[in-house]
Design a protein that fits this description.
Helix content: 10-25%
Shape: elongated
Mean pLDDT: 93
Strand order of the largest sheet: 1-4-3-2
Distance between the termini: 30 Å
CATH topology of the largest domain: Signal recognition particle alu RNA binding heterodimer, srp9/1
CATH class of the largest domain: Alpha Beta
Radius of gyration: 17 Å
C-alpha cells in the first residue's frame, strides 16, 4: 500500500505543472483532459469551456509521484492542514528549492539551520501549496 498526495488546483493545473517542471525538475508521466474522458461529465459538475482543463495528471518528482487535477475549475484552491515535504541533497539545493518555490508565494518560515536539520524552511508557493524544505543533518 502507498499514500500519494493529490492536489486540486482549481483551474491552474497546467500552470502548476510547468512551474514544477522548472523549479523541481518534475516530469509529467500522465496527463488527461476532461475532453479525453469516454463519458460526458454529469451536468453542472464543470464550468463551461473547461473541456481542455486537466482531469488527472501525475508528476514524478525525484522518487515520488504527485497527482494533480484542475478539479472543478472554480479558481478557489485551498490547501490547509497539509504540506508537501522535500528532502534536499544538500544546503545549496535546499536554498535553491526554497527560493524557487517562494517566488510569487509566501514564506511561512524562513529557511535556516535548526536543531533537527542543517536547513529547514516552510513556504506556500504561488498556487497556495505548502512546502517544507529540509536538509537532514550530516551523519
Amino acid at each position: 500500500m502507498k499514500v500519494q498526495p493529490y492536489l486540486f488546483l482549481d483551474g491552474r493545473c497546467e500552470e502548476a505543472i510547468a512551474h514544477y517542471r522548472t523549479v523541481l525538475g518534475a516530469e509529467p508521466t500522465v496527463l488527461m483532459r476532461f475532453e479525453d474522458g469516454p463519458d460526458e461529465p454529469p451536468p453542472g459538475t464543470l464550468p463551461p469551456n473547461s473541456a481542455e482543463k486537466v482531469m488527472h495528471a501525475e508528476l514524478r518528482i525525484g522518487d515520488s509521484v504527485v497527482m494533480l487535477s484542475d478539479g472543478n475549475c472554480a479558481g478557489r484552491a485551498a490547501f490547509e492542514g497539509v504540506s508537501l515535504s522535500l528532502t534536499a541533497a544538500d544546503d545549496a539545493q535546499a536554498e535553491r528549492l526554497f527560493a524557487a518555490l517562494a517566488d510569487g508565494g509566501t514564506v511561512q518560515m524562513p529557511i535556516g539551520k535548526t536543531f533537527f536539520a542543517s536547513r529547514f524552511g516552510m513556504v506556500a508557493d504561488r498556487f497556495g501549496v505548502s512546502w517544507m524544505i529540509v536538509t537532514p543533518p550530516a551523519g
